[in-house]
């Protein structure tokens, strides 16, 4: 489920021109081994680590088959948030209450945030993935789509192996190389792995306490602001200037309130916030606070991030969102057609992929304003036909 793009990977992206990818898999592995030894790993460790590595076609198929992210927010969230998951979140929240209390004390992160990730990533540790992690990482490093992300993860896994915390043959996880109950990449484990159960080891697969503390450490390192909200459902006045909405526009909570924005529950925090309309002005509406942006360091999918953030609020007592009556979503093919038209008008939509991400939404909003349409950034057939 997770589309991994960690802060460490972003920082390394500038060296992609020096990273090798492609060619025969065996030559690629030999190059990796040579680089590993140049980094100071001894030959015996390197040879043992890479001894049985193989390319995984299943990983490549999974990487290219992420159509789930083409679903709209209502469809996606209803698929992921069942009553059973709501009930299980309550159960696990009570079972590991002491760990969540510790996380709140040390990191200022609500248990709802981590329970939502735990639920979506592995169903509370029950489904962690059975892909060989080393094969997955080397396969994706060899593939030339995102070598700047996956090549460093191979060397991080090698470091974990040198420490005795990784098995090239037995460590398994998700198709994209994440390990454990909250699905962390090797670099993240090195930087943020925490011993939550006090046994002297960091076991993200077998120990919920370790996994939760490590996930909290990772969110903190990505910029989580302690003891602040992240998302809040609101109701909007019908005369709101829709061009003010979207994550690229921000005002204080007090300014939004002065425009008639009202919370469904609780009070609006007087923090910088954006109006998030995942399905346009006729669908659900949320205030997105600074912590909402941290979610995008965990996962780049707008629909996943919004769903995970909303589920976190639901776990903490927020009601089910008001679905409203949004204009029907475009199909994946229609979104791609729209993205091509937007590109032709000079907009950067981040690629023609059929996914309504933030760059596509910003381009849609610009064109809606130009055409005199309500500029709520929700792509419609009317806009598609007008372009």
Mind explaining what this structure looks like?
By secondary structure, the chain is mainly α. 49% of the residues lie in helices and 5% in strands. The protein is built from 18 helices and 7 strands. It has a 5-stranded antiparallel β-sheet with strand order 4-6-7-3-5. α5 crosses α15 (302-315) and α6 (83-95) packs across α8 (111-122). The longest helix is centred in the middle third of the chain and has 16 residues, at 147-162. Mean pLDDT is 92; it is low at 1-19.
Largest sheet: 5 strands, antiparallel
| CATH architecture designation of the domain at 231-315 | Orthogonal Bundle
Uncertain runs are: 1-19
- Write down the Rg: 22 Å
Features:
single chain, 387 residues, mainly alpha, Lysozyme, five-stranded antiparallel sheet, two-stranded antiparallel sheet, 18 helices, 5% strand, globular, disordered N terminus, signal, Lysozyme-like_dom_sf, Peptidoglycan-bd-like, Lytic murein transglycosylase, MltB-like
């Amino acid at each position: 489920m997770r589309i991994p793009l960690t802060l460490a990977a972003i920082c390394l992206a500038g060296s992609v021109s020096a990273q090798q990818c492609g060619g025969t898999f065996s030559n690629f592995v030999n190059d990796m081994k040579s680089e590993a030894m140049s980094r100071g790993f001894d030959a015996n460790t390197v040879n043992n680590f890479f001894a049985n590595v193989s390319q995984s076609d299943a990983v490549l198929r999974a990487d290219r088959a992420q159509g789930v992210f083409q679903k709209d927010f209502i469809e996606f969230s209803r698929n992921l948030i069942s009553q059973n998951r709501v009930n299980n979140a309550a159960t696990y929240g009570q079972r590991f209450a002491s760990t969540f209390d510790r996380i709140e004390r040390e990191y200022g992160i609500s248990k709802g945030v981590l329970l939502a990730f735990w639920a979506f990533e592995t169903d509370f540790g029950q489904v962690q993935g059975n892909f060989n992690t080393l094969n997955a990482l080397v396969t994706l490093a060899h593939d030339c789509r995102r070598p700047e992300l996956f090549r460093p993860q191979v060397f991080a896994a090698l470091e974990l192996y040198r420490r005795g915390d990784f098995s090239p043959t037995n460590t398994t996880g998700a198709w994209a190389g994440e390990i454990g109950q909250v699905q962390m990449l090797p670099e993240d484990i090195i930087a943020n792995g925490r011993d939550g159960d006090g046994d002297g080891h960091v076991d993200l697969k077998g120990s919920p306490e370790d996994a939760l503390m490590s996930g909290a450490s990772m969110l903190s390192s990505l910029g989580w602001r302690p003891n602040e909200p992240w998302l809040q459902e609101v109701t909007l006045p019908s005369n709101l200037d829709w061009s003010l909405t979207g994550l690229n526009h921000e005002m204080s909570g007090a300014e939004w309130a002065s425009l008639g924005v009202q919370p469904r529950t609780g009070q609006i925090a007087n923090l910088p916030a954006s109006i998030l309309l995942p399905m346009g002005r006729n669908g659900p509406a949320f205030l997105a606070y600074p912590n909402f942006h941290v979610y995008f360091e965990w996962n780049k999918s707008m629909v996943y991030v919004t769903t995970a953030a909303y589920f976190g609020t639901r776990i903490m007592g927020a009601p089910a969102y008001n679905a409203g009556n949004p204009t029907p979503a475009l199909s994946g093919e229609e979104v791609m057609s729209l993205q091509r038209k937007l590109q032709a008008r000079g907009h950067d939509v981040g690629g023609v992929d059929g996914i309504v991400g933030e760059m596509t939404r910003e381009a849609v909003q610009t064109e809606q304003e130009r055409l005199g349409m309500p500029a709520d950034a929700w792509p419609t057939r009317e806009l598609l036909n007008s372009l």
